[in-house]
Amino acid sequence: MDFNVKKLASDAGIFFTRAIQFTGEKFGQVEKTELDAHFENLLSRADSTKNWTEKIFRQTEVLLQPNPSSRIEEFLYEKLDRTVPSRPNNEELLGHYMQDAAKDFGPGTPYGSTLIKVGDCERRLGSVQREFLQTSAIGFLTPLRNFLEGDWRTISKERRLLENRRLDLDSCKARLKKAKLAESKAAAVPDFQETRPRNYVLSASASAAEHELRLAQTEFDRQAEVTRLLLEGISSTHVNHLRCLHEFVEAQTAYYKQCHLHMQDLQKELDSSNGDVFPNAFAGNPGHSMASGGSSPLDPASAVETDTLKIEEVQAPATGTRKAKVLYDYDAADTSELSLLADELITVYTVPGMDSDWLVGERGNQKGKVPVTYLELLS
C-alpha cells in the first residue's frame, strides 16, 4: 500500500486552513471574496432548474406509475442493470378477468358477449397505455434523469472546487495582510540590535504570501471560468427539456386520442347490439309489466318503455305532479332528456314502466326525462 505521509499532512493542513477561513466568515471575522452579480444569477438559476426538474421528474414518475412498490422494484432492477419483468397492467388484467368471466357465464348470453367486447377493449386500452408509458419514459423521464444524475453532478462538483479555491484565495489574502501588518509594525518600532535579521524575515514572509496569493488567484480564476461555462450551459438544458416536454405532450395527446377512439368503437358496438341484447334478456318474462303493477299492454301508457320512450306523446297525469328544485346543472344526453340549471323549479311526475331513477320534467313548453339524483322534491 502506497501511503504518502507528506501528502496526507499537506491535505490535512489545507483542510484545516479552509475550516478556519470558513468559520471566520460565518462569524464575520474575516473578509470573503464575493462573486459578481452575473455569476450569482447563474448559480441561482442553476439551483432553481435542479429543484424544479427534480420535482417534475418525481411527479411524472408518480403519474406514469402510481404504485410506489412497483416504482421501487423498477428502481432496484435499474440499479442492478437487469430487465424489469413484464407484467399485465390494470387495464389488461381487468380485460382478462372479464373475458374469463364471459367463458364461465357463457359467451352466447347477453352478459357474457358484452363482457367479451368490453374485456377486449380494456386489453387494447392496456396495450395503448403500455406504449404511452414506454414512450414517455424514453422521451421525457430519461432526459430529466440524465440531467440530474449527469450534468448536475458535474456542476455540483465544480462548484465545490470553486468554493475550495475561494477559501484558499481568502486564506492567502489574510496571510498576506497579516505579514504586511507585522512588517509595518517592525518598521515603525525598529530594534537597533536585530533590525536587519527581523526585517529580512518579515520581508521574505510577505513575499512568500504574495506569491501564494498570485497562485491562489490564478487557480480561482481558472475554476471560476470552468464553473461559469457549465452554469451558462443551463440555457441549453432548458432548450432540451422544452423539446422533451413537447414530445411528452404529443405522446399524451396520442394516448388519450387512441383511448377515446377505442371507447367510441366499443360504445357503437354496444349500442348496435342493445336492440338484440336487452329484449332477449327479458324475453322469458312476458308478464313483467303487469307484475310490476303497470297498465295493460293495450294501455297507451304502457308504450313508455326505456328504449321506446317518446316524450312528446307523454301527458301529465291529472294528479301526482310535484314541484322540484334542481340541485345541479345537467346537460341532456339526447332529445328525450331535459337540460337543467341549478336552483330552477320544474314540474315532475312519473309514468308507468319508467325507470325509477328518472322522472319526466316540464318547464314551460319543454319536456323531457330528468335524473332524480339532480332534484330536491318539494310539495
From TrEMBL:
Gene3D superfamilies: Arfaptin homology (AH) domain/BAR domain, SH3 Domains. Keywords: Apoptosis, Coiled coil, Cytoplasm, Golgi apparatus, Membrane, Mitochondrion, Mitochondrion outer membrane, SH3 domain. Its main location: cytoplasm. It is found in: Cytoplasm; Golgi apparatus membrane; Mitochondrion outer membrane. Residues 282-302 are annotated as: Disordered. The gene is LOC110525498. The lineage of its organism: Eukaryota, Metazoa, Chordata, Craniata, Vertebrata. This is Endophilin-B1. One of its GO terms (cellular component) is Golgi membrane. Residues 24-279 form the BAR domain. Belongs to the endophilin family.
